[in-house]
Amino acid sequence: MFHFHLNNCGNVAMNHVSILAPEDSSNMDGIHVESSNNMQLSNLDIATGDDCILLGPGSTNINISNVTCGPGHGISIGSLGKYLDEKNVAGITIRNTTLSKIDNGLRIKTWAPSPPSTISNVTFQDIILNDADNPIIIDQQYCPDNRCSQQGDSKVQIKTVKFVNIQGSSLSPIGVNVICSKSMPCQDIEFSSLDITMHGSGQPTTASCSNVKGKFLSNVVPTSCS
């Protein structure tokens, strides 16, 4: 279920919109985009029980800026890989955004096993995360409610993703969690100017990564992947 469902749309601008729903309104995305091209989503205030914004299969050339999200499940790309013949996701920019009291902050999610597709050219930049359970997560073993076989790897190729100037606090000791496909590792994943610390103590968070080819550049907390 969605508050706004943007499907098969092009050349859309959404500006100065507020979406306010109870935190326990499960399965209720704020804005759900799929099979759409060339969108500007800006100056949004979203509180809901699921993803504030979800970019599904076929989302291309989407610019998101100046969003306040929370409570909710953050901003997600995907899930991809659940169905055959899903369209690729490409050209996504999310910037100048604040997410507070959220389950997931910035998330990319794909099913395993899955048919082939790609997620590419994604930038998350200038973002504040306040008290996120999972501040940054790439999950290529996405399986809600344990209802999938997991007898195989995700065939969704994730590549050219940048996380730039991300600051905030985590409710988990893991600030960056990257779980990529064994048979199709993530390519060109880049982290720079991160400062994600533990809520309350201010101690540095850690990073956990598997099957990823990427770089942790200057001024990064957590400092590297384990």
Automatic annotation (TrEMBL):
It is found in: Secreted, Cell wall. Belongs to the glycosyl hydrolase 28 family. One of its GO terms (molecular function) is hydrolase activity, hydrolyzing O-glycosyl compounds. It comes from the Eukaryota. GO terms for biological process: cell wall organization. The keyword Secreted applies. This is Pectin lyase-like superfamily protein. The active site is at H73.
